[in-house]
Amino acid sequence: MYMLTEERHTFILNELKQANIVKTQDLMNALNSSESTIRRDLQHLEEAGELTRIHGGAKRIYQLDSEQSIQEKSIKNNQEKIAIAKLAASFIEDNDVIYLDAGTTTLAMIEFINKWNITVVTNGIVHASLLTDKEINTILIGGKVKPSTKAIVGTPSQNELQKYQFNKSFLGMNGIDATFGCTTPDPEEAALKTIAHQHSATAYVLADYTKWDKVHFVNVCGIEEVTLITDSCHEDLRPYKAKTTIWEANQ
């Protein structure tokens, strides 16, 4: 079957998403193309920054992005975040003790929290303010303030969080990847997220479509350790659904 150049490129990139490495011979067989054609395809995709050629094939590129401020995050993908937040809040039940991670998507959850007698532990300064405005029993853990995200981080906050157990935790994340799991740029924030999910009966990770297939500096957990909540998207989530439960908003 003859395929256009763009179709071959799309096929190659989809294969890399699932396997991380592709072999030239396998691509020749799958695409019914010559070795020279596949080599040209891989060269073009490498020049476009989509992959790295290796002996006998190519491997996927993982871009480590920098972290944005809370102001920058709050204006991006707002409708998607609201949909995710509303779905996430629906999992909260009366009498729950939950951990609410700092972040713009978890912040959007607060509007939709309507259960009785819940306790919320958070490292988000803005989160704590909004929660107390709703007369929700709130514990703001202590530590140093990270200016860009208005999050409490550091050793004192980690030590305090170790004391608590949660019915559920709701975590923001900068990157979700089928191989490298859930990642974030900041080691101190990553440490808190790891503790929270380890001390929760159920841990939810909230991530819109821009976070998928992204890898950041510090690993928090494997995707099989958490339940993922995302917006409806057109990405191929089969590698993820094979490992964990995914809830999609707007379905």
Automatic annotation (TrEMBL):
<dbReference type="Pfam" id="PF00455">
    <property type="entry name" value="DeoRC"/>
</dbReference>
<dbReference type="InterPro" id="IPR036388">
    <property type="entry name" value="WH-like_DNA-bd_sf"/>
</dbReference>
<dbReference type="InterPro" id="IPR036390">
    <property type="entry name" value="WH_DNA-bd_sf"/>
</dbReference>
<dbReference type="InterPro" id="IPR018356">
    <property type="entry name" value="Tscrpt_reg_HTH_DeoR_CS"/>
</dbReference>
<dbReference type="InterPro" id="IPR001034">
    <property type="entry name" value="DeoR_HTH"/>
</dbReference>
<keyword id="KW-0805">Transcription regulation</keyword>
<keyword id="KW-0804">Transcription</keyword>
<feature type="domain" description="HTH deoR-type">
    <location>
        <begin position="5"/>
        <end position="60"/>
    </location>
</feature>
<protein>
    <submittedName>
        <fullName>DeoR/GlpR transcriptional regulator</fullName>
    </submittedName>
</protein>
<dbReference type="InterPro" id="IPR037171">
    <property type="entry name" value="NagB/RpiA_transferase-like"/>
</dbReference>
<dbReference type="Pfam" id="PF08220">
    <property type="entry name" value="HTH_DeoR"/>
</dbReference>
<dbReference type="InterPro" id="IPR014036">
    <property type="entry name" value="DeoR-like_C"/>
</dbReference>
<dbReference type="InterPro" id="IPR050313">
    <property type="entry name" value="Carb_Metab_HTH_regulators"/>
</dbReference>
<keyword id="KW-0238">DNA-binding</keyword>
<dbReference type="GO" id="GO:0003677">
    <property type="term" value="F:DNA binding"/>
</dbReference>
<dbReference type="GO" id="GO:0003700">
    <property type="term" value="F:DNA-binding transcription factor activity"/>
</dbReference>
